[in-house]
Amino acid sequence: MTDINPSIAFVVPAAGVGARMQANKPKQYIHLGEKTVLEHTIGKLKATLPDALIIIAISDSDAYFKDLTLPENVITVTGGKERADSVLNALNYLSHNFSIEWVLVHDAARPLVLPSDILKLISQCQTTQCGGILASKVRDTIKQGTSFVENTVPRDSLWQAQTPQMFLLDELTNAVSNALAQQVSITDEASAIEWAGGKVQLVESRADNIKLTTPDDVAIAEFLIAKQLLEIDKCE
Ligand code: CTP
Ligand code: MG
Hints:
Layout: E1 8-14, E2 31-32, E3 35-36, H1 37-48, E4 53-58, E5 74-78, H2 83-97, E6 102-105, H3 115-128, E7 132-137, E8 142-145, E9 149-153, E10 159-168, H4 169-181, H5 189-195, E11 201-204, H6 216-235
Parallel strand pairs: 1-4, 1-6, 4-5, 7-11
Antiparallel strand pairs: 2-3, 6-10, 7-10, 8-9
Helix pairs in contact: 1-3, 2-4, 4-5
Bound molecules: cytidine-5'-triphosphate (CTP) and magnesium ion.
């Protein structure tokens, strides 16, 4: 067992093809300004906890990762068929090779997250000793229906789940691995923990921690990244 950071590591699923983005490469390799989405994302994690391990799941057929400039504390593992398979490969790698207590899973496709929000999540989870996720309150009026409105859904208790999602490594590895073994569909880490009967706390985050999904998102992300970089410059 190697003990680099005694308590916290990041896992970054980056093995998707980005079908909905319809780009000529997986969306984590699209440029936002001078850097790729994945480089921006890793930069945010590094800025949050400079020494923490970052385990990135990449596809076997990935032709782009080798050209990136990434910090030394990055290790790659092979991705899987679905996001949850990629995450589980990274969790198993961590469990077998390092002594880590908490893990934060963060989508490669969410480069806009702020280190201050990640630190808020870490502090909240460690203080309460309970896992949690970044999430933003739903702002729009929500309608239910197919072609016509059947219902207006009260939004007071509705949240949009984001990442990072932070859990004890053992608890999360067991939950994801058991859920996959029983063919339960899990779209994020929290849903595996919920399925296993565990608790997930909601930690409010900025709504602009968006996941790049469709072509429209690229222009928004380019604008927001440029704005964030200007704000960092002003502080220096
Ligand atoms: N991901 C992964 N392994 C997979 C599928 C997805 O590691 N087998 C990663 C993606 O690279 C992304 C994150 O999980 O960073 C969130 O998934 P999503 O937004 O759905 O990305 P893609 O699956 O790449 O996009 P799409 O669903 O449009 O194909
Ligand atoms: Mg997907």
